[in-house]
Amino acid sequence: MAGHSKWAQIKRKKAANDLKKGKIVSKYLRLIAAAARAGGSTDPAANVNLRNLIEAARDADVPNDNIERLLKRLAGGDDEGSNYEEIVYEGYAPGGVAIIVQALSDNRNRTASEVRHIFNKHGGSLGATGSVSWQFERRGYIWVEPNSEAAQEAAIEAGAIDLQESEEGLEIYTDPQEVYAVANALKAKGFKPEDTEITMVPQNTMSLSQEEAEKVLRMVEALEELDDVQNVYTNLNLDNVSIGA
Fold it and tell me: A Gene Ontology molecular-function term (predicted)?
């Protein structure tokens, strides 16, 4: 399983900027509302997807008061999130890089038009459902610094499926439903996960030149700027790409 620590680094920087703009707060509150509706419960103990999203929101520094107020409104019959549906777009970025776009929208036509515009503008091509998703696996992902034997042992003991070592840190892959349980087990042993999320991991990656890779990154950034887009995944290999070059 290919590591993607550089992708995590990019996402952390973007999350910090989005938090300042308030965008990340609205993103997670929308996701939490939709998960509560889809799971039929506002109780995190009875709705694993809701529980995972609440954990992710807290890790992203979404104020707990915001989360609690939303859950109380939903439990009281508020229909927030009832008009949103999850939509997945698949296709190719420049250079033939596979790309998956996850959106949460209350207007399918608007979202499709915006996503299609970005694909066309940046030299990508939209594909049919299933055209590239077979190249990815849904996994829990945890990044721990620094890498150490103790961290590896703790991760395996907590239920990690796979580990990827690097000089910068340790990438830990888990069952998607267990990622926050594994992260909490690591925290209990004194480790501090820098990044915890449920992600789509490519089974194989594609390497491009610096110039071509930058085209893909610009396309990803443009997609992530769309209000309805929640996550963007690609199989671009960033190992030999200078970020911000």
Answer: DNA binding
Does the domain at residues 85-134+204-234 carry the CATH identifier 3.30.565.10? no
How far apart are the C-alpha atoms of 95 and 144, rounded to whole Å?
A: 31
pLDDT band at residue 220 using 50, 70 and 90 as cut-offs: very high
CA distances, 103 to each of 13, 80, 90, 118 (Å): 21, 17, 11, 14
Q: Per CATH, the architecture of 5-75 is what?
A: Orthogonal Bundle (1.10)
- Where along the chain do the CATH 1.10.10 domains lie? 5-75
CATH 3.30.70.980 placement within the chain: 85-134+204-234, 136-202
Q: What is the pLDDT of residue 162?
A: 94
Tell me the pLDDT of the chain averaged across its residues. Answer: 88
Architecture category of domain 136-202 in CATH? 2-Layer Sandwich (3.30)
pLDDT in tens, 169-213: 899 999 998 998 999 999 999 998 888 888 999 999 999 999 999
pLDDT band, residue 5 (cuts 50/70/90): low
